[in-house]
């Protein structure tokens, strides 16, 4: 296989900037997905429009973040307020894309894993927004992610020759799926089957990186999610029976596992051994 060109200096910075700009564009699309998928609407038609007056958005009003700032957060036609969530999702996607590109790099061999983890970042963010809104993780997003993730990880394994990573990914995805399924059976009020299905996707990506990433990513979800729930109870904003979506914490835990999983796992093993 022909080696990819080596990027240095300004070219390397430019590559990360371009990935950030791609994140802004993807974030704009994720806003559409987060709004329409829970309502069982098409994500391709009709064109985006103001939910108050129904006027279709002009092209110049569809520029990520910038259009919201120019319009001062209001519809050009009727003056209705536009939620701050739209530019925040766009910015969050851009930041996540840049962080992922910094984590894996934009040169070989890390660049081969970049598409899989950029996809995971986008899917994780939109599922977080939807789960917060409606306490659901739609199958129409989660189930196709199995196929997309396996294909992208397979390409990365083929390009790097790390076929053992792909095998580990399959085993890890199955383990995390079964773990969440067992938790659902034991304590069905604690999570939904959507969480179980998402666990398999997250397990694929985490285990592809290593067993340490899988263990830390899985444990971190319960750690940060539990800490948040306890905080809400102590603040009087939730009770013991309050329903708190767990999907966002699964995604947050996976992010911790991807960023620092193997390092934290090695440090832990060093302490106990």
From TrEMBL:
GO terms for biological process: methylation; signal peptide processing. Keywords: Cell inner membrane, Cell membrane, Hydrolase, Membrane, Methyltransferase, Multifunctional enzyme, Protease, Transferase, Transmembrane, Transmembrane helix. Residues 119-230 form the Prepilin type IV endopeptidase peptidase domain. It catalyses: Typically cleaves a -Gly-|-Phe- bond to release an N-terminal, basic peptide of 5-8 residues from type IV prepilin, and then N-methylates the new N-terminal amino group, the methyl donor being S-adenosyl-L-methionine. InterPro entries: Peptidase_A24A_bac (IPR014032), Prepilin_IV_endopep_pep (IPR000045), Prepilin_pept_A24_N (IPR010627), Prepilin_peptidase/N-MTase (IPR050882). It is found in: Cell inner membrane; Cell membrane. The chain crosses the membrane at residues 12-33, 112-130, 142-160, 166-187, 199-229, 249-271. Its EC number is 2.1.1.-, 3.4.23.43. It is a multi-pass membrane protein. GO terms for cellular component: plasma membrane. It comes from the Bacteria. Residues 21-104 form the Prepilin peptidase A24 N-terminal domain. One of its GO terms (molecular function) is methyltransferase activity. Belongs to the peptidase A24 family. Plays an essential role in type IV pili and type II pseudopili formation by proteolytically removing the leader sequence from substrate proteins and subsequently monomethylating the alpha-amino group of the newly exposed N-terminal phenylalanine. This is Prepilin leader peptidase/N-methyltransferase. It comes from Actinotalea soli.
């Amino acid at each position: 296989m022909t080696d990819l060109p080596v990027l240095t200096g300004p070219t390397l910075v430019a590559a990360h900037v371009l990935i950030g700009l791609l994140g802004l564009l993807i974030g704009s699309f994720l806003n559409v997905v987060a709004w329409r998928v829970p309502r069982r609407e098409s994500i391709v038609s009709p064109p985006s429009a103001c939910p108050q007056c129904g006027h279709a958005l002009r092209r110049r009003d569809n520029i990520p973040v910038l259009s919201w700032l120019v319009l001062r957060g209001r519809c050009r036609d009727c003056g209705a307020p536009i939620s701050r969530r739209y530019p925040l999702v766009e910015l969050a996607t851009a930041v996540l894309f840049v962080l992922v590109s910094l984590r894996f790099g934009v040169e070989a061999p890390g660049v081969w894993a970049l598409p899989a983890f950029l996809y995971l970042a986008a899917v994780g963010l939109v599922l977080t927004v939807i789960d917060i809104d409606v306490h659901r993780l739609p199958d129409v997003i989660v189930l196709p992610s199995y196929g997309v993730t396996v294909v992208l990880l397979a390409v990365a394994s083929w390009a790097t020759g790390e076929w053992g990573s792909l095998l580990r990914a399959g085993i890890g995805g199955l383990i995390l799926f079964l773990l969440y399924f067992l938790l659902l059976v034991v304590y069905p009020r604690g999570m939904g089957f959507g969480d179980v299905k998402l666990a398999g996707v997250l397990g694929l990506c985490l285990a592809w990186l290593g067993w340490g990433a899988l263990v830390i990513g899985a444990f971190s979800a319960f750690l940060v999610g539990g800490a948040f729930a306890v905080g809400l109870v102590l603040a009087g904003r939730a009770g013991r029976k309050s329903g708190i979506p767990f999907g966002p914490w699964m995604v947050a835990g996976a992010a911790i596992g991807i960023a620092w999983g193997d390092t934290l796992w090695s440090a832990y093993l060093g302490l106990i051994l």
